[in-house]
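Work Package 4 report. The design task specified in the project plan requires that, given a folded chain encoded as structure tokens, an amino acid be chosen for each position. We show below one input record used in the internal validation round.
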């Protein structure tokens, strides 16, 4: 009996591992057969060697990662495959492949990765993060109708008033430059989207400010949960799970803004205070359309408003920061711009939007800021929804695509001496040169995911650049002895990037300029 029992025990110990081994081999062979059938013998794009299962995690955490990605493309080609913890990632390094894949084949390259960070931070309400499909299209249509070129003209007076307030704040306290920049775009976008005129003592101001900080969540490599989604289930009290507190704060603020700001608009519609806003118009349209349920329409309105605010305020804020750094580092550019403004606008008024055709150098500065320091170095990453064959390579469905916009905008073949801030590259015979590639094609996204708020952003940036240069001199910061401090241009390693050092000295150009600011 003991012998039989021992034999049975040995048999079980042998059989179980054998079954596990057999099942593993079967699943592996089945996966290989499926993969071979899908790729039809085509290879994945080339890329650096990686650690099995871990991939190229260390590479994705490098500072100014867009520069590291350009180096990879210089070594391996315009398409580079970089897996990270099981996620297939593909870097696109040239305008040609970006156009081929994201524009010409946008029907299968317009998806978005549904990461844990998006859900944890509350950004699953931002429709720019939605998967490509019917729900995204409904949001896009609601958004787009209010930001077409003709529609954007309705907002010019709001932008002008916000910029005037910005000039006054700069005059009163230039040391708070970044705070004032964020203010000018926040107040303008809040007025356009929600119809609410902002005052410093309004209770919602702090919440509207905090929601813009959610961009910190998307700093590449900052949170391990970005690469290990299962970590989202770890309770906040567990040691090492402090990220849960960060995300809870962002999620609460995002939800507050999403829900409460629309209700404030609805309340203001009763007495006509907010009737011209985008939210008010969408609410009025709600009863006229039957494409979706009332509950869905309410969600669409809240999500569109949140997306318009976050996208409009944060990206233009970052771009204007880059403008101030560019002026500190390039005083000759500043002098040329001011000479053009003096000749066209004169000293008795501030620039207007309709001065744009007569201010080609100002417009060239605007274009050069977009090129020199793109605030979205990788745009917003795309994802393939189907298997793709391109240039002899196999690109599987579910591959994350990172178009290196920064590399395209710093390509010396297209833009000679790309590290120099040189608005003249866009001019010929005193006019804009149409033969020079427009940075906007890389700065505002690609294909079906191109930014629908581009025209609004362009108008806002133009009037800010023109007004600031018309009345202020922007010079290097000073130390305690009054000597100039040399600053350097370094961009923050974030999804929405911005210059890290924006110190400068801001003074009125003249007493007449001071009067214009205060008028």
């Amino acid at each position: 009996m003991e012998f039989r029992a021992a034999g049975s025990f040995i048999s079980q110990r042998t059989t179980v591992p054998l079954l596990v081994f057999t099942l593993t081999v079967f699943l592996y062979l089945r996966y290989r057969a499926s993969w071979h059938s899908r790729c039809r013998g085509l290879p994945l794009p080339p890329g650096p060697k990686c650690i099995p299962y871990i991939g190229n995690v260390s590479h994705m955490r490098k500072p100014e990662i867009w520069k590291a990605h350009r180096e990879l493309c210089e070594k391996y080609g315009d398409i580079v495959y970089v897996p990270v913890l099981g996620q297939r990632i593909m870097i696109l390094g040239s305008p040609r492949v970006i156009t081929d894949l994201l524009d010409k084949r946008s029907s299968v390259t317009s998806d978005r990765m549904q990461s844990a960070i998006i859900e944890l931070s509350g950004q699953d309400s931002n429709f720019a993060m939605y998967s490509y499909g019917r729900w995204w299209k409904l949001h896009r249509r609601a958004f787009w109708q209010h930001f077409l070129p003709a529609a954007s003209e309705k907002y010019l007076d709001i932008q002008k008033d916000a910029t005037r307030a910005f000039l006054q704040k700069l005059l009163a306290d230039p040391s708070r430059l970044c705070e004032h920049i964020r203010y000018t775009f926040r107040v303008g976008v809040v007025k356009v989207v929600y119809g609410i005129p902002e005052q410093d003592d309004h209770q919602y101001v702090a919440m509207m400010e905090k929601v813009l900080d959610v961009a910190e969540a998307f700093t590449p490599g900052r949170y391990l949960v970005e690469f290990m989604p299962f970590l989202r289930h770890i309770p906040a009290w567990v040691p090492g799970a402090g990220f849960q507190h960060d995300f809870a704060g962002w999620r609460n603020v995002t939800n507050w803004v999403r829900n409460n700001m629309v209700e404030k608009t609805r309340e203001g519609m009763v007495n006509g205070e907010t009737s011209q806003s985008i939210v008010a118009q969408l609410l009025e349209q709600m009863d006229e359309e039957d494409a979706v349920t009332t509950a869905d329409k309410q969600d669409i309105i809240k999500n569109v408003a949140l997306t318009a605010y976050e996208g409009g305020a944060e990206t233009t804020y970052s771009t204007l920061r880059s403008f101030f750094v560019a002026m500190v580092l390039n005083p000759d550019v500043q002098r040329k711009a001011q000479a053009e403004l003096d000749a066209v606008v004169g000293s008795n008024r501030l620039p207007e939007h309709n001065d744009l055709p007569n201010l080609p150098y100002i417009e060239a500065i605007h274009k050069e800021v977009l090129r020199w320091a793109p605030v979205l170095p990788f745009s917003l990453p795309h994802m393939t929804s189907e298997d793709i064959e391109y240039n002899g390579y196999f690109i599987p469905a579910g591959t994350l695509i990172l178009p290196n916009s920064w590399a395209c905008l710093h390509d010396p073949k297209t833009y000679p001496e790309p590290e120099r801030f040189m608005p003249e590259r866009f001019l010929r015979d005193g006019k804009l040169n149409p033969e020079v590639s427009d940075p906007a094609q890389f700065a505002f996204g690609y294909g079906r995911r191109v930014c629908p708020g581009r025209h609004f952003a362009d108008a806002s940036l133009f009037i800010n650049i023109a007004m600031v240069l018309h009345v202020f001199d922007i010079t290097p910061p000073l130390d305690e002895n009054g000597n100039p401090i040399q600053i350097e241009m370094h961009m923050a390693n974030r999804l929405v990037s911005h210059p890290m050092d924006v110190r400068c000295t801001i003074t009125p150009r003249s007493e007449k300029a001071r009067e214009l600011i205060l008028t």
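The mean pLDDT is 87. Validation will be extended to a larger panel in the next phase.
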